[in-house]
Amino acid sequence: MTTSDTPRLLALRAALVETLRRKGIRDPAVLDAIGRVPRHAFLESGLEDRAYEDIALPIDEDQTISQPYTVAYQTELLGAKPKDRVLEIGTGSGYQAAILHAMGVQVFSIERHPRLYEQARRRLESMGCGAILRLGDGSLGWPQWAPYDAILVTAASPDLPKPLIEQLAPGGRLVVPVGDLESQRMVRATRRPDNELEIEYFDHFRFVPLVGRSGWQAADLEDH
Ligand code: SAH
Prior knowledge:
It is built from six helices and nine strands; from the N terminus they run ααββαβαβαββαβββ. The chain is α/β, with parallel strands linked by helices and 224 residues long. It has one domain: 3-Layer(aba) Sandwich (Rossmann fold). The strands form two sheets. It has a seven-stranded mixed sheet with strand order 5-4-3-6-7-8-9. Strands 1-2 form a two-stranded antiparallel sheet. The longest helix is centred in the first third of the chain and has 16 residues. The radius of gyration is 16 Å and the shape is globular. It starts with 6 loop residues before the first helix and ends in a 19-residue tail after the last strand. Bound molecules: S-adenosyl-L-homocysteine. The site of S-adenosyl-L-homocysteine has 25 residues, from strand 2, helix 4 and strand 4.
């Protein structure tokens, strides 16, 4: 793994930002963060060359680093501002956490696979990224640091995980792909200041499953 940029990688990353802009990503803070975080540093060395293609790529444990468009899409929906407290479920490679950190957000992130957790922890630390990581079942949230201004789930959930809704601050947003294992609809649930939940539906995506108490049970996945 290398975090060092070369003129070629910088040019490819700038081109990726343009691609995302063309695909409809508007938030300057999101585009700026994608332009600054070295995605190649989150991939195995054989894949570094493909880091700035707008595609999902494999990481360990049969998981994926999301497509840059998906990262930008979810981050834009989250509407996080500098200093906000944001909880991410599904640290994976750590790339999404690094994007949020680059936006000045206070990042908390949970991963269920020990190996991915350990790799992301070391990687983010070596990059000077101060995201606070934890190994565990993120479908239950992280009550210790709640409430959150925003919660982002980067894995497919069968429905809105209740513990996450409960950990939203007034005005807080939960962005989560909800559906079956084949396809999910991006959902944003906003806890209004009067405590009512406002639900909005966006585009379809395909994520790896959220496996946990408030997600899919391991037994649900046996046929997949
Ligand atoms: N955000 C990641 C993409 C991760 S893919 C990135 O930027 O690279 C989804 C991740 O969610 C996988 O690493 C998977 O292991 C993790 N995951 C699935 N269910 C989980 C759960 N209940 N709690 C925490 N992590 C979970």
